[in-house]
Specification:
The protein has 255 residues and is an alpha/beta fold. It has 8 helices and 15 strands.
Length: 255
Amino acid sequence: MGDDVVLVNGRIWTGRGEVSAVGIRDGRVAAAGESGEVRDRLGNDSTVVDVEGRRVIPGLIDSHIHVVRAGLTWNQTVRWDDIADLETGLGRVREAAGSAPPGTWIRVLGGWHPGMLAEGRGPTRRELDKAGGDHPVYVQLLYEEGVLNGKGLKRLQGSGWDQGLDLDDRGEATGRISGAPAFRAVLSLFEEPSLDESIEGTEALMSDLLSHGVTGVVDPGGFGMTPQSYDALFRLWRNEKLPLRVRCGPSHGGQ
């Protein structure tokens, strides 16, 4: 059995039209057309896969995604991408707090929106206090706002930061913050991942993207990035283990 692969009996979109078969050689499309002609071009040693009428499309390219930054701590970040209610999300925070080293941050960095939750809202400081136990907790909603529990708020204020804090009628901090400077201030308090952790996280994130059909990304950099933030990416590339095509627009220094 050769390394060439032929997909047959499909509804295969080439970008110029639809065909029933495609041949792949050395990781590249070598032929596209009807099953017989594609199999003839790649030879009898090819592996033939019958896709049974399924739709096949080229790999997707995400033209704006912070994959480098997210990959650094992907395995240390609590995911809310697929939750349908707030209680499930808080349960994941509790689970992470139960296994994380004492006093370390529990963080949810985007990937969710109140509109996808049955409650129609995000968490409160008190709810994160209860779920996080002895850990500082931070939950961020896109670039709109973030919510800290009491321990997280104490660390932020202890760093000397007091801007972008939401106050209640009594002048007490609710745990909510807003604005890029406040987000950067919180992110700067997180534990730095090791290079091995960053490599493992980057591989895990890219594997997740591949499972959704994303094979290429354009990464614009973003705030919080330093030259060292790209070490994991380039280590994977140099070791020929980078599973995605990545185009970078490196930035650092808060840009």
